[in-house]
Amino acid sequence: MMQHLPILQIIVPLLGAPLAALLRGRDLAWGLALLLTGVAFLISVVLFGQQKIAGEALIYELGGWPAPIGIVYVIDAASALVLPVVSGIAFVATIAARRLVEAEIDARDHALFYAAWLLTIAGMLGQVTTGDAFNIFVFLEISSLSAYALVAMGAGRDRRALPAAFNYLILGTVGATFYVIGLGLLYMLTGTLNLMDLSERLADVESTRAVFTALAFIALGLFLKMALFPLHFWLVPAYAHAPSAVSALMAATATKVSVYVLIRLIFGVFGIEFPGLADAVGLLILTLGIAGAFVGTLAAILETDLKKLFAQSSIAQLGYMAIGIGAMSATGLAAAFIHLFNHALMKGALFLAIGAIAAQAGRASMHTIEGAGRQIPITMTAILVGGLALIGVPLTAGFISKLYLIRALLEQDFWMLAGLTFISSALALAYVWKIIEAAWLKERPEDAPVLTESPVQYVPAWLMVVATIGFGIFSAPLVEAAYAAANVFIGGTR
Amino acid sequence: MQDDPVIRVVAKVMIPTVMLFALYVQFHGDYGPGGGFQAGVIFAAAFVLNAMIFGLNRGRHVWPANLNLLAVCAGVLLYGLTGVASMLLGENYLDYDVLGATPQAGQHIGILLVEFGVGLTVASVMVALFFTFAGRMTHNRLLDRMEAQDKDAKRGAAKQAPKKRSRT
């Protein structure tokens, strides 16, 4: 069975979805989802180990058809690093989902909710695993379509989920269409869809106008999907009005998978030597990244709704990942992978903790958490640590991210950019301080509803918090894995 | 439209013919143009025609929503489990060679099963889409719940309003 793990990674949640849709009865669908995401997490960890021991890419041929003809699934250092992030977050979010979904979603819709939940996870895992460019599009659509449905399910409680889901649907579809238009051009030029084959054959048609057009379409489509400034407007309402469990799952994983696909396409297919890629495209991504970091942070400072606040901060954090990609170096890519990993943990922790509050109080705003630091100390501390990690305080995972990001920029002598990155990170202190002030320095208003907490609510969030601190202190394995992932795309030494 | 004898008689002749043609497209897909997607849509068209002529309620009666959900899921599972079967028989996922006595027979069985899964899911999803949009105003949990919210909000506002007046 061991050689089948790359495909089992995807079909376990994928085939779980139709089963979950058929299950009736209390918590059965949730139990199935928990079991299957747990199995998927286990598989991804084993795959990570297998890949590390093998030292080369594990290749699985679907239907026994070899590479350029058939679809192959490729587990290399990069996908082996991203798979545990997605499946691990999915597992922890599923643990937390039971309470959140019970509070926010009509009992008759639970089966369909978990079906869509498993589908979106399967789609994300598929995008990471596959070595076929069109297969990426198929999985992109699987994960996005079910994500639109999940966001829209927030409408039972918050009607603004409907326009949010609709905007997300329109923009997400535009993004996916741009990607597939670019892909169509590449297919027309080379006659292949296999990523490795594509990168070899592109050398023959490198400086034609059609290839540049293809690059532009693919990059733009993925910028939209990963919510890179200024294509991020769908993200904030979608995360803010979705059911809390969905906000947590998506904030921690959805955009990260698109970042991974962008890296895979830009570096894995076009390659760093592609004419104009290192300077023109790199400069564009750097500029948008740094602009996004500032715009996201400033918008987060002005926000009073906690879900929106951290959604805005996601824009900033995606900006940092873009800066890592835009540096166009091995260290930069490694920094992007490190931040992708760490940010998933931090945002997972934050949105799970906020979700626990929102599920009780109906919403989570600065007003809701006034004086809550004494009423629900454990949950609020999780939010505090998550916030500190976002700033990049030492001993948290966020510090490691920023350290390698700034190192990558200094390597290329981008002194000013390094300074700007530092300033925008420091600005994040403002919104975290706003939360500290509201939660601990203010008295709880007399008429405010009493918030409670129990292990069921805070344990999932704290799992992430502990991981955030753990990877902040013992960062060596992560850094090593991230450099290995970067070396898949850019041959370079540490 | 139920009352027009011409439409009723023509529909009664057409519906089975459409279904039969769908099955032809489905299973002849091995040798000529056709396959699960096309067949599924044609098959669903028969249900859509039935509901349009004889009314939504009778359309639902012929093919209940629960059964339809089962068909949606069964199609996907049939596809996926065909792959799992080939995996259990010792080959890669979706490698049909091992499903039959010879690789050729295996490929034949495999593609037939997989395409049938596709056809089943496509047909039932098309039917589900039609009934969801057509029956949107009568059978929608989300709309019901939102209306209930509105009523609650209005009731709440009505209760609060007199209080305010008494204060001033």
From TrEMBL, chain A:
> Which positions carry the signal peptide feature in this UniProt record?
none
Record-linked Pfam families: Proton_antipo_M (PF00361)
**Single GO biological process annotation from the record:** ATP synthesis coupled electron transport
Question: What do the Gene Ontology cellular component annotations say?
Answer: plasma membrane
A Gene Ontology molecular function term for this protein is: NADH dehydrogenase (ubiquinone) activity
* Major localization listed first in the record, in broad terms: membrane
Q: Which InterPro entries match?
A: CPA3_Na-H_Antiporter_D, NADH_UbQ_OxRdtase, ND/Mrp_TM
The membrane spanning regions, by residue number, are 30-50, 112-130, 136-156, 168-190, 210-236, 280-302, 314-338, 376-395, 415-436, 457-479
Cell membrane: present as a keyword of the record? yes
| Keywords carried by this UniProt record | Cell membrane, Membrane, Transmembrane, Transmembrane helix
Q: Please list the residue ranges annotated as the NADH:quinone oxidoreductase/Mrp antiporter transmembrane domain.
A: 132-427
What is its subcellular localisation? Cell membrane; Membrane
> How would you describe this protein's topology in the membrane?
Multi-pass membrane protein
Membership in a protein family = Belongs to the CPA3 antiporters (TC 2.A.63) subunit D family.
Q: What is this protein called?
A: Monovalent cation/H+ antiporter subunit D family protein
Native organism:
PS1 clade bacterium
Cite the source lineage.
Bacteria, Pseudomonadati, Pseudomonadota, Alphaproteobacteria, PS1 clade
From TrEMBL, chain B:
Q: Which keywords are on file for this protein? A: Cell membrane, Membrane, Transmembrane, Transmembrane helix
Q: GO cellular-component terms in the record?
A: plasma membrane
Does the keyword section mention Coiled coil? Answer: no
**A Pfam family it matches:** MnhB
Q: What is its main location?
A: membrane
Where does the UniProt annotation locate this protein?
A: Cell membrane
Na+/H+ antiporter MnhB subunit-related protein domain segment(s): 6-127
Name the coiled-coil region(s): none
Q: How does it sit in the membrane?
A: Multi-pass membrane protein
Give me the segments passing through the membrane: 9-27, 39-57, 69-89, 109-135
Which InterPro entries does the UniProt record give? CPA3_antiporter_subunitB, MnhB
The segment annotated Disordered runs over 149-168
Family note: Belongs to the CPA3 antiporters (TC 2.A.63) subunit B family.
Q: Which PANTHER family match?
A: NA(+)/H(+) ANTIPORTER SUBUNIT B (PTHR33932), NA(+)_H(+) ANTIPORTER SUBUNIT B (PTHR33932:SF4)
- Name of the protein: Na(+)/H(+) antiporter subunit B
Query: Which organism's genome codes for this protein?
Result: PS1 clade bacterium
